[in-house]
Specification:
Layout lengths: L9 E3 L5 E5 L24 H4 L2 H6 L1 H17 L4 H13 L3 E5 L5 H5 L4 E3 L2 E8 L8 E2 L19 E5 L9 H10 L2 E5 L11 H6 L7 E6 L11 E4 L2 H4 L4 E3 L10
Parallel strand pairs: 1-11, 2-3, 2-8, 3-4, 8-9, 9-10
Antiparallel strand pairs: 5-6, 5-7
The protein binds ligand BV8.
Ligand BV8 binds next to loops.
Length: about 260
């Protein structure tokens, strides 16, 4: 792992496929708290209390209040330069770009990202806890003043459409496929504390064919820093604009 800070440039050839993994750090400059910073999201809450199925069973009202607060913060936040830089890269390289976010906010979508998944769920969606078959509900209003748990048409409780600890992340088959075919993996703003997301950099190095080039962008080295080809130290909003250097696609035959 090299940590040159001088040459912050990721060259992308016309055949490179780019897999981007984002974590809470990419939304930090939008005013959303991360998890493990000192005044982080978990401040005042134990993970087990608000982000596990057991915590939900024990105190669903507290869990709904925790996610209502997260919704309010996310609604107040605006995408930052890092979100826009990824949306711009996607525009430039099209379907050779894939974004996997650990974040449950909607800042990537609001900045224009399209080819993406939320492996840990989405803040503004709720679902029937009994999986009765009712569709996942898009609810942009936050449950600000929850007094009773919202109820599904089948009579079961609605729960946040969030992947809690101990639950299986979403879209893992698609994620594995995209890692297998990427030649560049870029992780942005994630501490490498949570699995399986923290393993993606390892998967990208043992994929079929040549190991992918792997980069981390953030102000401090993540726990899995040694796995990256290069660690680019700095804030996402400062480093991502201008970081990617896509090569021009080959001119179509007959066109000059
Ligand atoms: C799974 C939704 C199996 C909630 C989240 C025992 C029992 C059961 C499971 C386990 C176990 N032991 C270990 C596990 C696995 C467990 C796990 O990893 N636990 C950890 C604590 C050890 N994982 C799971 O349970 C997962 N499920 O394993 O199922 C399986 C696996 C594969 C295939 C099939 C089945 C499910 C985990 C999902 C939990 N849900 N989120 C919610 O949001 O409320 S996790 C939550 O924390 C986030 O979503 C994120 O993914 C994760 C890590 O947070 P980060 O994004 O990294 O944020 P953090 O604060 O940590 O770091 C911020 C970083 O940003 C810092 O590095 C900082 O330097 C940087 N930064 C700050 N400012 C900036 C910046 N970077 C750039 N620019 C800036 N300006």
């Amino acid at each position: 792992m090299a940590t040159e800070a001088f040459q912050d440039l990721i060259e992308i050839s016309a055949s490179d496929r780019v897999f981007v993994l984002t974590g809470a750090g990419i939304s930090a400059e939008s005013g959303l708290r991360t998890f493990r910073d000192s005044n982080g999201l978990w401040a005042g809450h134990r993970v087990e209390t608000v982000a596990t199925p057991e915590g939900w069973e024990a105190n669903p009202e507290l869990v709904w209040q925790f996610y209502s607060q997260r919704r309010r913060e996310a609604q107040a936040g605006q995408p930052n330069a890092a979100h826009y830089a990824l949306a711009e890269l996607e525009k430039r390289i099209g379907d050779r770009f894939f974004l996997c976010s650990q974040n449950v906010d909607d800042l990537h979508e609001r900045s224009g990202s399209r080819n993406m998944v939320h492996m840990h769920g989405e803040l503004f969606k709720s679902r029937c806890e009994a999986n009765c078959g009712a569709p996942i509900i898009e609810d942009s209003h936050s449950y600000n003043f929850i007094r009773e748990i919202p109820i599904c048409a089948c009579g079961s409780r609605l729960r946040p459409h969030i992947v809690w600890f101990g639950e299986i992340p979403l879209e893992m088959t698609r994620i594995q496929q995209e890692i297998d075919r990427c030649s560049i993996l870029v992780a942005v703003g994630t501490s490498g504390a949570v699995y399986p997301a923290a393993s993606f950099v390892h998967w990208a190095k043992v994929r079929r064919g040549a190991p992918a080039r792997t980069y981390y962008v953030g102000p401090e080295a993540p726990l899995n820093a040694n796995a990256f080809t290069r660690v680019i130290l700095g804030k996402a909003g400062e480093k991502l604009p201008g970081l990617f250097q896509p090569g021009e696609p080959p001119a179509l035959p007959g066109r000059q």
